[in-house]
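To: structure subgroup
Subject: Chain for Friday's discussion

All,

I'm putting the inputs and outputs inline so they're searchable in the archive.
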Amino acid sequence: MCDLQSGLLGHLQLLNRLRTISAVVFLAGLLSGCDDAPPDADVSTIKLPAAGVEAVGDAFDEEHGGWEFFDGTWEYRNSGGNGILAQTASELGRRMFPLALWKQHRFSGTDASVHFKPISGEMDASGGIVFRAQDGSNYYTVRANSLEDNIRLYTFIDGRRSKIASTRIPAPALGQWHSLRVVALGPHIQVYLNDTLYIDHQDETFTEGYVGLWTKADAVTEFDELTVRGIPAGAEQKAIGESGRPAIQR
C-alpha cells in the first residue's frame, strides 16, 4: 500500500510539473506574439506621388472651427511660448478614447506627421494619429505608448478596437517631444516614431477619410505641428497610376 501511495504521489507531482511547464510555454507564446518584429532595414518605403497631392497643416496657434472633438477635454493652450492642442482630462476610464478629427479634408493616400509630448498617465501615456476616419467610431489609429514600450496600429469599427500590428520600441520619454508619422497608400501602411520605421503592414478596412489625433484613458498629451500631405478622396487611383501599384521609394 505504501509503495502504491508513493507511486501515485510521484505521478501527481510529475503531472503538476508538466502542467506548470505547459502554462509557462503557453504564456511565453502569448507574450512573444504580442508584438511583431520591426521591418528589415532594407525594406522599401512608400511615399505619395509628387502630383495630385494636397499639403495642409495646423500649428495650433489659434482655435478654429475645423475640428470636431470626441470624449476627453481638448484645449488650445501655450506651451513653452508655442501654441499647442492638448488632451487634458486625467480621470477618464480605461475604455475611453479621446479623439479629435480635422474635418476640413478627406484623404485616401495620406502622409501625416505630428509632434506629441506625453505628460502623464497611470493607465496610459500615449499620443496617436488617426487617419482614414469615417466618423468618431470608424477609423485607423496608430499610437506610441510610454508605459507599454510599444507602437501599435488599430482599427476602430463601430467603436470597437482591434490591434492589427504592434512593435516594441524604446519608450517615448514623458515630458519630451516626439515625432509620429504614418504613410498610407492603397492597403500599404507604414508607421514611424522619431524618424525610425517600426510598422510595415497591409490592411484594406478603410480606404479614405479624415485625419485626427488620439489618446487613451487618463493620458494627458500635448500635440503640435500637424502636417499632412494627402491625395484627396476619390483621386487615389489616378495618383497610383496605370500599374495599380503604389509608388515605392528605394
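Points worth raising on Friday:
Residues 20-33, 239-250 have pLDDT under 50 and may be disordered.
The helical segments are 2-32, 236-240.

D.
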